[in-house]
């Protein structure tokens, strides 16, 4: 197969039949001419998520605190009692991290999540605010395991999640 990528070196990766995935489902699109570090990214996300999940309550508390400070207008969209919501958000992230290689399942479930969000009144312009609050909350609880590389990995993943939820990918 001819190499369609700007950097032909990447085609060595794409043509390797031993690889379970060559393009990470949460990575930038191939048609944009960019290729992610595929399996390595999935491994790194899983590893760093352990440090976040170990402080699940602190993570979800921090996330919604930050979200409601950054975007007070979204607070009324959520229930007064946020306990169930915090558990749902965490469960969804756990599921995503466990299913990073299941590209079709991942996309289908995230798209459904995005469609439900239309019903909740979520707007596309609010997704970057959510991404920023999630990254900050992760940084709050992940301790010494958090650094610029970890943040870049999660930014890639969360932006991609938002794109799929919004039907853009
Ligand atoms: C990366 C983006 C986001 C993720 C991963 C996410 C995740 C979730 C999850 C897992 C739920 C539980 C309910 C369900 O599964 O349908 C939920 C509910 C909800 N989300 Fe999001 N969300 C995101 C972005 C947003 C944005 C941008 C808004 C804007 C306001 C928002 C507002 C809400 C609201 C209002 C609910 C429902 C609360 C309720 O009535 O119980 N979300 N979200």
Describe the structure in your own words.
This protein is mostly helical and 169 residues long. It contains 7 helices and no strands. Helix 3 packs across helix 4 and helix 6 runs antiparallel to helix 7 (148-165). It starts with 8 loop residues before the first helix and ends with a helix. Residues 1-5, 8-22 and 29-37 have low confidence and may be disordered. The chain binds protoporphyrin IX containing FE (HEM). The site of protoporphyrin IX containing FE has 20 residues, from helix 4, helix 5, helix 6 and helix 7.
Write a brief caption for the model.
This protein is mainly alpha-helical and 169 residues long. The chain has helices at residues 9-14, 38-53, 56-70, 83-98, 103-120, 127-142, 148-165. Helix 3 crosses helix 4 (83-98), helix 5 packs across helix 7 and helix 6 runs antiparallel to helix 7.
Layout of secondary structure:
Layout: H1 9-14, H2 38-53, H3 56-70, H4 83-98, H5 103-120, H6 127-142, H7 148-165
The protein binds protoporphyrin IX containing FE.
How large is the radius of gyration? 17 Å
Topology as a string of helices (H) and strands (E):
HHHHHHH
CATH architecture annotation name: Orthogonal Bundle
Superfamily (CATH H level) name = Globins
- Sheet having the most strands: none
Spatial shape:
globular
Bound small-molecule species: protoporphyrin IX containing FE
- Which stretches of 5+ consecutive residues score pLDDT under 50? 1-5, 8-22, 29-37
């Amino acid at each position: 197969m001819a190499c369609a990528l700007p950097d032909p070196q990447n085609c060595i990766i794409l043509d390797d039949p031993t690889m379970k995935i060559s393009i990470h489902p949460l990575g930038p699109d191939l048609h944009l001419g960019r290729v992610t570090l595929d399996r390595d990214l999935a491994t790194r996300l899983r590893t760093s998520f352990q440090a976040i999940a170990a402080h699940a309550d602190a993570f979800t508390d921090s996330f919604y605190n930050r979200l409601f400070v950054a975007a007070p207008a979204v607070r009324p969209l959520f229930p007064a009692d946020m306990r169930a919501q915090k558990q749902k958000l965490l469960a969804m992230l756990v599921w995503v991290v466990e299913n990073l290689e299941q590209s079709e399942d991942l996309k289908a479930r995230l798209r459904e999540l995005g469609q439900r969000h239309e019903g909740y009144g979520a707007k596309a312009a609010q997704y970057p605010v959510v991404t920023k609050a999630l990254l900050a909350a992760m940084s709050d609880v992940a301790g010494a395991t958090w650094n610029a590389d970890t943040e870049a990995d999660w930014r890639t993943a969360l932006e991609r999640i938002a794109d799929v939820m919004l039907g853009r990918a």
